[in-house]
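hey so u asked for the seq, here:
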Amino acid sequence: MKSLRKVPYKIAITGTLVAVIFWVFEGTLHRLVFDADTNPGVIGILVPSDPNELWMRAFIFSLILSFSLYVQSVVMKLGSAEALLRASENRYRDIVETAEEGIWILDKANRVFFVNRKMAGMLGYSVDEVKGRHIFEFMDEEERKVCGARLEASKRGERDQYEIRLRRNDGSALWVLVSGAPYLDEAGEYAGALAMATDITGRKKSEEALSERVEELERFRKATVEREFRIKELKETVAKLEGVPAKGPEEKF
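ran it, structure tokens below
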């Protein structure tokens, strides 16, 4: 559809031409029907001598002109609103596409209605490969239960933040911190879910490595304590055999 901004003043100009054509046509038709025997000339046709006819013609002329100017003003306002809307959409699109977070919108059936390049890239897909797919296709069975519960909460109007493990295209794990919220239509009804996802895979790997290190140190501590007690028991056994009191680890010095 042709943009309203591309037809400046066309309606006003057209309305003015229609009003002028009406003025001339009505005068000519009136002379042909009612004053066919007279020859008033061009001036007489354009400016009738009858006040009633002049008033009627001027009234309709003004009505046509006023209506065209009113419509033109409405069109210009709509054009300005359209320009603002386009600018707003462009800014929104730039923000979404350049965001450091992954963004996707799900429909009522939990299928991906919109996804930005960042989110698709985090999953190892293109945007077109992600759109239209069910959200559960990107996670394992255990995570589907977690995600399903969060989506049900979203249907109740709840906002939430949680961590979840997704599955990349190559099968590797993608840990994300999700900030979810319900997506509403123009009537304020639930239309799906909006989610912003931050990649925390590196942090989760560090946490797992730290946890493994702590567990390793704990095993070492237990093994050390056990070794000390075994040494003490061995010394006590030897001392009994030799008839000499055994010293504990704290009595070495």
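The domain at 100-199 is CATH 3.30.450.20 (Beta-Lactamase). Residues 1-5 have pLDDT under 50 and may be disordered.
lmk if thats what u needed
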